[in-house]
């Protein structure tokens, strides 16, 4: 009994340490982006940046999030999840520190890319860690994660200018201070290196496998549409406010309120989503709020009120994070879906501010930009309808293969399940090749987050009395 109690105590301590580590890591994932905007003019003047170079700097986050996010599952399988997150936080801290110490444009851009690479890896890895360590209770940890992201973004954006003023206008200090936050975030993960999850026994999914999967593309579309709207709001909404008579100080206040409202929303949405078997009502609710908010802003009246309404719709971001875990059963599947959804989504979202800028310049007004946003909201409704349904992405071990995972072409998007066949060790799985297993059985009777609806065949045990983790 004493041994059992000690084991439970150790498990509980590890869980708390993981939770603290996730929150601290989340605080750092956006600092490389959000700390630059408030002092961008000073950086451009100090480094002699051209308009083109400044455009490259503002485009780097999208490119890095897409590129490095896509390779995160492969890196995780080779290095281990805890080790990779330590490396990601080190990259973030080193990149932030180096770019705060240089006066060369090329080195500044390179250091920014290093810091953004760390953030991109963390974006994909943390949902996987939540699924790995808290498979039965992902909601509370997703809430902490999304709140940490929102708070880290808000504080780094709001505090950079005051820090610069306190440092006699030195933007180097204002950017470099955020490297200290990354150093603090590394500490719990260094302690967790000894608890690295075992690798090599679970199914893996290659990014190419998801290219033919409806759920993966729907997730990319949903993630990309909400990210595009967020990029446009943070990039162009200040100009919208200025065009409607707001002063620069008033604009900053409105944007701060807009960001602050997102924190309590982030507290509620993931917990609510995990209690729902079908998240489509929640998704369509956010779509309706987007439509109401944009329509109200387009009238040009009561702008602050409509801004507050619109800020509620930003709950679609923590909802997207929650869906990454709700639409998968295993940490490996979560990693693959997170990498694909976020990488493809960020590429799609990155074009939003550019297109809005072109439309604004051509029309001289806001009707065309808002028309584009209504189209994006419609796309979010369509993709969200599919993603929010009661379906899961399966990673089923293929005991005939020790190489990279592959798609099972005959079992894509059938009924309510989107399935991927991954690689696994025959000895660990203890079964015959898939072709010898007979008709598809039910998933095991253990509780799970999303159970496909409809009629099912009776459960049949596989070799060794094992219930295969599959469903129709």
Q: Taking Cα atoms only, what radius of gyration do you get, to the nearest Å? A: 23 Å
Q: Examine the secondary-structure arrangement and name the CATH architecture of the largest domain.
A: Up-down Bundle
CATH superfamily (homologous) name of the largest domain: MFS general substrate transporter like domains
Major sheet details: 2 strands, parallel
Uncertain segments are 396-415, 421-472
Average pLDDT, rounded to a whole number, is 79
What is the helical fraction, as a range of percent? 55-70%
Order the strands across the largest sheet as they lie in space. 1-2
The beta-strand count equals 2
Tell the overall outline: globular
Distance between the termini: 42 Å
CATH class of the largest domain: Mainly Alpha
Beta-strand portion reads under 5%
* N-to-C SSE string, H for helix and E for strand: HHHHHHHHHHHHHHHHEEH
Number of domains: 2
Q: Please report the number of helical segments.
A: 17
Q: Which fold does the CATH topology of the largest domain refer to? A: Growth Hormone, Chain: A
Q: What class do helices, strands and sheet pairing give?
A: mainly alpha
